[in-house]
Amino acid sequence: MRRALGLLMLSLALCACGPKGPIEPISLDADADWLNEPPPDPGPTAPVAAVICGEIRLSAEIAAAQPTDAWNGAWILLFASRGSPGGPVLAGIRAKLPPKFPIPFCLSQKNVLVRGGKLEGALFLSARIDGDGQPELDPGDFDGSTRVAVPVGTRNAIVVIDTFR
Q1: What CA–CA distance (Å, rounded) separates 27 from 129?
Q2: Which of 115, 121, 138, 153 is deepest in the core (most CB within 10 A)?
Q3: What is the rounded distance in angstroms from the CA atom of residue 110 to the CA atom of residue 42?
Q4: What is the DSSP letter of 97?
C-alpha cells in the first residue's frame, strides 16, 4: 500500500513539473488603435515612449499602376526588424487593407512578437500589401521598407510601398 501511494505521489509530482504543451503562437491581428490617428506629439520635454508612429504610403509608380479596387480583401502588414529590413522580426501588426492611403500606424510594446523582446533601439520598418495575410512574401505582393533604422520614440516615420513582387 505504501509503495502504491509513493508511486502515485511521484507520478503527480512529475505531471505537475513536466512540460505544459506547446506555446501558443502570437497573433498578428490588428490592435484596436493601429488604424487610428497616431497619438499627439508629447513635446520635446516628455520622456521617449516605446512607440514608433507614422504613415504607410504608396510610391507614385505603384499608386498609378495598380487600381485600389484590385486590392479588395487584401491585408496590410507592418514589421519592425533588427539589423536590416529583412532581419529578425521583433514586432508586427496586420489588418484588412483600408480603402485609402496614407495609412497611419503606431507600433508599441504590445505589438512585440518575440517573447521577452523589447521595443527599443532603432528598427527597420517594412510594409506589405498581401493577398493572403500571411507573413511570407509571395509573388503578387507589394512591399517596401525604410532605408535606415528608425529610432523608437519616432512619431513621423514614413514607410513607402514601392516594389511589386
Answers
A1: 18
A2: 153
A3: 20
A4: P
